[in-house]
Amino acid sequence: MITVRYFYSACVSIDTPDVRILCDPWFTEGAYDGSWYQYPRLAAPLEVIGACDWIYISHLHPDHYDPTFVRAYLGRYPAARVLIAPFRDPALSRTMTSDGIPHQIVEGVLQAGHTTLRCFPNDGPPPRNIDSAVAVRHGGHAVVNMNDNLWNARQVAAIRAWCAPEVTIALLGYTGAGPYPQTYYNVYREADLVRAEALAKKQEGFRRYTEMATALHARLRIPFAGQYVLGGARWRLNPFRGLADATEVLGFDPRAVVLADGGTGAVDTETLQPTATRTVPYGDAAIQDYARSTAANPMRYTRYFSGLPLAAIPWGRLLPAAAIHARARSRCTTPHWFCVRLPDQEWFAMSVLEPRARFTRDVADLVPRSEITIDPHYLFGLVTGVFLWNHAEVGSQYVTRRIGEGFRPEVQGFLHHFRVGAA
């Protein structure tokens, strides 16, 4: 028998008679450089979770890899072993080493008694290849944790084959995080448009859930992950995120169950009867009240650089060098301009294809373009590599206005390389 216990977002434990596995514990508030918070909060997570044998970390995103909590957990339960998938790009392993967190890359199958575990890295194209899934088998039953994995037919086929004859319980993503549509429109002047785009985003999350659920064909499905609230200076954006509540899945998937938060909700592979469930969405008003209570909390870049005079930042050297670095690494083949707003209404404009960049007060002739409005101290941290553009994007930390064309992933990827240095 395998028991799945739900704590928060992507954090669950998968327990067998041989081993207890904690997955993706995120409990440090202010992820993504200060903008992601939890609702409802779990008080004393170390005590509530208790001792586990293995800690599986699926990927680098800070709502899955929380080094502050992992260090605290290992301090309380030092016998626990941290496990990660065998990624072709060892970025997660390098980061854990830098953070001082011992870990094991699981090549093949890991066994404890009659329990076997295998990690399945997503080997699709960027950016989907940073994630992984984990499957656990015991007593003829199998539990699969898909985390944030986007569709990859080869990965899904490998999981199905390893879990044969069936997947008993599947933990599946059902909603999308990210900055769209809340940071791409004026949420007050274009409220109707933003709400329409938010609804479309929710439906796309449900489509992906259904696609994965159909392919894995588990006897029971648990919609999970992606549960967060924007806080700090970004708190007003919550109603426009297009973020679904897990209970909405109950309306179209008869095999779904939403386990109650905080470790009270659990279900096992023999009875498939949950101990505690949630069937009513969390209220928008209560979420916004909590988000408003965090409004004065500083972002990480404020704590790092608020004392740095903007006039002392050498934009004239940093930004052109960062643009050269991005062009050398970008895979984009589409003409586009990124225009980053600087203090005093000046822009730094850079082409993604040609070695053209300039400081200017007028970007109207640059089409198609993306206009980026961002805190200048944060911009300094991003172009110097202290912070990551991906975290800034997912954390809704800057505003983008597109002129001349819609969203193109290969264009947006250019910005992720916009920094100085060879990394």
Q: What structural class results from the helix and strand content?
A: alpha/beta
Ranges where pLDDT stays below 50 over 5 or more residues in a row are none
Largest sheet: 7 strands, mixed
Structural domains: how many: 2
**What is the number of beta strands?**
20
Highest-level CATH class of the largest domain: Alpha Beta
- Using only C-alpha atoms, the radius of gyration works out to 22 Å
What can you tell me about this protein's structure?
- With 423 residues, the protein is an alpha/beta fold.
- It folds into two domains: 3-293, Metallo-beta-lactamase, Chain A (4-Layer Sandwich); 302-415, 2-Layer Sandwich (Nonspecific Lipid-transfer Protein, Chain A), CATH 3.30.1050.
- Helix content is 27%, strand content 21%.
- The protein has twelve helices and 20 strands.
- The protein has a seven-stranded mixed sheet, with no helix packed on it.
Supply database-style keywords.
2 domains, alpha/beta, 423 residues, Nonspecific Lipid-transfer Protein, Chain A, 6-stranded mixed beta sheet
